[in-house]
Each structure stands twice: as structure tokens, then as C-alpha cells.
Amino acid sequence: MPKIISDFMLHARELAVRGHGFVEPNPMVGCVLVNDQNKIVGTGYHEKCGEAHAEINALNAAGPLAKGATAYVTLEPCNHQGKTGPCAQALIDAGISKVVIGCADPNLEASGGGTYLATNGVEVVYIDDELCKTILAPFLHRIRTGFPWVICKWAQTADGYIETPEGEDPWISCEGSQQLVHEERGRVDAIIVGIGTVVADNPSLTVRNAEAHRTPLRVIVDPTLRLPHNSTVLDGEVPTLIAHGKNVDKTAFTNYPVSFLELPEVDGSLDLRPLLTHLVNKYDATNVIVEGGKTLFEHIFNQQLANELWIFTSQRTIGNENLKNMTQLFNAWDCILENKQPCGNDLVCRYHVK
Ligand code: AOF
Ligand code: ZN
Asked: How far is residue 231's CA from residue 250's CA, in Å, rounded to a whole number?
């Protein structure tokens, strides 16, 4: 791909991700309009679900300068009247001469914009850009599978431990890493944990000290419904769902502000697929974070449901074989490193599961 194209597409991608947490279940989309002197005349991105698409914001920014310009857009312009649109027609009406598309739209209701533009005299180039597909991955995955994008997140010591000896500092990752997790929590639709984690840590599973673009649902996977009644997740502060197995007695929970979902079993553990489908159908979920513990990660691994691993590794070592360690399970996952960066004293790695 010529550098000039990749540079403008890179810019469009950077704009697109600004919508993360605001646009879902819609895709993140960015658009850059460039004139025949290779000068940017307008930019825009999809800022909020239900509001203007990226192309419309870019066209509005460019005004009359859009005439004859080339549009670099991360996703094929839509060809439908949904909550807004259609963008393909708006690009034609504004006199855009060429559209460079990072990724085709698999949403059958909205797709066809590329063909429509071409039949109306606009030059259309698909570049099938891997990085565009990466930022669109949760949207593409949900359309293809009916499941949300599942991010498994954990903090481990340098030697792979996710728990610390009794009496020692229980925090593994640094404050900066915890801040990153809260920021991400504020962009996803659900935070899922296993009952063991709730019993051991009594977490709040809320967004704190970070901007909440949306309020994630708390989900507890509790096969036998052994959730302690004094758990913080029962405080009613945010919507909470308990996914349980067959034949549990829920009467003791009648007065608590929580919902329940019964899951069938598969190979001796709860089948998590109906939970994921439920999160899409009832809560319109696109991204969910699983925050442990090890048993839940094992079930997710066995059922092949993880899309991304997000691992915070501290410099501390523990070397106590009685404690939970993720090294073996991590090594079994077939994944590729997408991103690696330091955060305070921690190393933060994101992997895409193949
Ligand atoms: C575009 N540009 O910026 C986005 C597109 O209900 P609506 O009208 O918001 O349409 C949502 C669908 O439009 C979404 O599922 C996807 O197929 C496409 N999103 N298309 O031309 C954009 N966000
Ligand atoms: Zn559109």
C-alpha cells in the first residue's frame, strides 16, 4: 500500500478509537477527507451510537471543500437508513470523487455502500486493512458469531502467580495498571467473575476513578449459588446478573436487586455460551471483560471463548507451588502478541487469541 494511503488510513483509525465505549454496539469508524493536493479538508468519527456516522461528521467539517476530495474511511460507508444514514448517498451528494475503504461492512442491513458508490461514478478502493479489522474485531465477531468479544484480564507476578501468600500484600499490579483496568471497565458492557473470586476478594466490580462511558453489568458465574449474602455485588449499585446451574434454591435471594440466568452443563462445568448469547440479546453487549479466577479462565479456555488476553505482569516473584499460577494455562492458549507496553513497574501485554 502506498505510504500516503496508509498514513491517511492510520489517521482515520486514530479518530475511530475515540468512539470506544460510546458507539457500541455500533462499530468504531473514522473518516479523513483529503483534497487533490493531499491536504486534509475535514475529519470525523462516529462519536455516539444513534448519532451521526463518521462520514457525515467529516463532510460537515469540510463543508464545500469536500467537493472532489478523497474519503479515507475505516469501514465501508453504509447504504441504509438506520438511526442515521445512508452515508454512501451523502458522500455522492457532497461530490466526493474517491473512497478508500479499510474494511467491508459485514452487517447485511447496512452494507452495499461500496457498490452503490461505484455505480454512481465514485472510484472505490478496498484495502482490507489488518489494523482496521483489529479495531473492528469486536463488531465483526459479534455479527459473525452472536457472541460478545471476550477479554480475559489478569494480573500476575513475574513467575505467573495470580494470588499471594496469606499475610502479604494482596495487590500484584501497580496503581497505574489498576487505573488502566478501571478505564477499560468503563468502556465494556459486562465484567464477569467466578464465584471463587467473589468469595475470596469480595470485589465491587464497578468503575472507579475513571470516566465511565457506559456502566458494565456485573456477572457472577456461581454454579451452586453459594454467593455470600454480605457480598458487595449485592449492594444494588449497578445491574448484576448471577449465572447459575440447575436445581439451585434462589428463595434466599428474593429481596436482592439481582437477576438470574440458569445455564446448562457441558463437560462437568457450566456452559458459558448461553450466557454470552444472553449478554448480546438482553444487554446488547459487544465487549466483556473476564477478571478471573483461574477456574473460570480454564472453562473459557476449554470452551474456546476467549478473544483477547490482557495480562499485567509485575516484577514480584512468589515461587510458592500451592498458590494459583497462570503460566501453564497461558502457554496452552494459541495467541499472538498485539501490544506490549510498560505501566509503572508492570509490563502490560495484549494478545489476540487465534
Ligand atoms: C458508516 N459509518 O460511522 C458507522 C457505520 O443505526 P445506524 O444508522 O447508526 O447504523 C448502524 C450500522 O451502520 C452499523 O451496524 C454498521 O453496519 C454501520 N456503521 N457505517 O457508514 C459509520 N458507524
Ligand atoms: Zn453510515
From this structure: 16
106 Cα nearest atom in ligand 1: 17
75 lines ligand 1 (CB under 6 A): yes
Give CA angle at 253 (250, 259), nearest 5°.
80
Q: Of residues 14, 24, 47, 55, which has the active-site annotation?
A: 55
* Catalytic residue list contains 55: yes
CB distance 317 to 159 below 8 Å: yes
For the chain, the 3-state helix, strand and coil shares in percent, each to the nearest 5, are: 30, 25, 45
What is the distance between the alpha carbons of residues 239 and 260, in angstroms, rounded to a whole number?
A: 11
What is the Cα–Cα distance from 7 to 46, expressed in whole angstroms? 20
Q: Report which protein residue has its CA nearest ligand 1's atom 15.
A: 26
Longest dimension (CA), the chain: 71
Q: How is the beta sheet containing 259-262 ordered, strand by strand?
A: 259-262, 240-244, 217-221, 190-194, 287-290, 149-156, 308-313, 346-353, 335-343
Each residue's pLDDT, cut to its tens digit, for the chain (354 residues) gives 777 778 999 999 999 999 999 999 999 999 999 999 999 999 999 999 999 999 999 999 999 999 999 999 999 999 988 888 799 999 999 999 999 999 999 998 888 999 999 999 999 999 989 999 999 999 999 999 999 999 999 999 999 999 999 989 889 999 999 999 999 999 999 999 999 999 999 999 999 989 899 999 999 999 999 999 999 999 999 999 999 999 999 999 999 999 999 999 998 899 999 999 999 999 999 999 999 999 999 999 999 999 999 999 999 999 999 999 999 999 999 999 999 999 999 999 999 999
**Cell numbers given for 62:** 469540510
Count of residues making up the chain: 354
Asked if 210 and 179 count as a contact pair (C-beta separation under 8 A), the reply is yes
Contacts of 168 (CB under 8 A, 6+ apart): none
